[in-house]
Give the backbone structure.
Amino acid sequence: MKPQSLQFLAGLFAAVAIGIAATPAASPATDSVTIKSERLRQNSAIAKLRVDPAEIAAFWTDDVTICRGLGVQLAGKAAYQKLFEADSTDSKRIVYERLPSAIEVSPHWPLAFETGVWNGHLGDLSGPTIISGRYSAQWVKREGRWLIRAEVYVALDGAGSGLDSKAAP
């Protein structure tokens, strides 16, 4: 190979390396804002009059796990999605919302921790809160997108028909 070709290749590799180094990675603060936005987008999908379970499930990893508010546990996106497929659009429907109070993003790994409060409203988001509590979630960044890998909900309060359900032993 000619010396000019080697110099050209060395310059090209240096330019690529500088370009990669100059490409800013998202900061934990930016990722935190992104995760909060994703959570609020999922809330909107849950609150729609005509629920689209696939739209709600788009925020989970395939191997998502959940411990529901009253203790029932589920594993996998398909099982979790069935909960929303079973939702009715009548007045007995419970619309859940998650309100993040803190999101902490690891500066070392593609992981984040979210915590907050959740409310179950009768009928729609303007309906009375019949069950509520606290939650936490683990988020993982895969292929540039933040997804929920695990959620734990704990019911702490309720009213009316929300008190009819029993906690898992």
Q: What stands out?
A: The radius of gyration is 22 Å. The chain has four helices and six strands. The first strand starts at residue 60 and ends at 67. The helical segments are 3-22, 28-47, 53-57, 77-85.
